[in-house]
Amino acid sequence: MEYALLIFHDDGAELSPQEIDDHPRHRSWLAEVRRRGVFVGGQRLRPGHAARTVRSRAGDTLVTDGPFIEAREQVGGFVLLDCADLDEATELAALHPFAALGAIEVRPVWSR
């Protein structure tokens, strides 16, 4: 089953893509999920200030600059894993370096 790991971090503690890629714990984590054959994909997201939020209600569309929720922690990226179960996905999320820097939400993906 596929699981999305939504990576939350403090929006004020922005790391560059190069800093993340070069971080030894990140490289180790990526090697582990690839070794297990569960890594499907993932990507960093640009900071929340680069986002737009779109709402459509009763035929009207409201577009606002910025993330959906005004909070210190923002979604900074996502990873898609194909794990045996929620326990394995949770175990791998706990090993991810951002579990110590922010938070990771593990969410099952609807199958097609």
UniProtKB/TrEMBL annotation:
Segments crossing the lipid bilayer: none
Xref: Gene3D superfamilies: Dimeric alpha+beta barrel
A Pfam family of this chain: YCII
Residues annotated as domain YCII-related: 1-110
InterPro entries: Dimeric_a/b-barrel, YCII
Family: Belongs to the YciI family.
Entry protein name: Transcription initiation protein
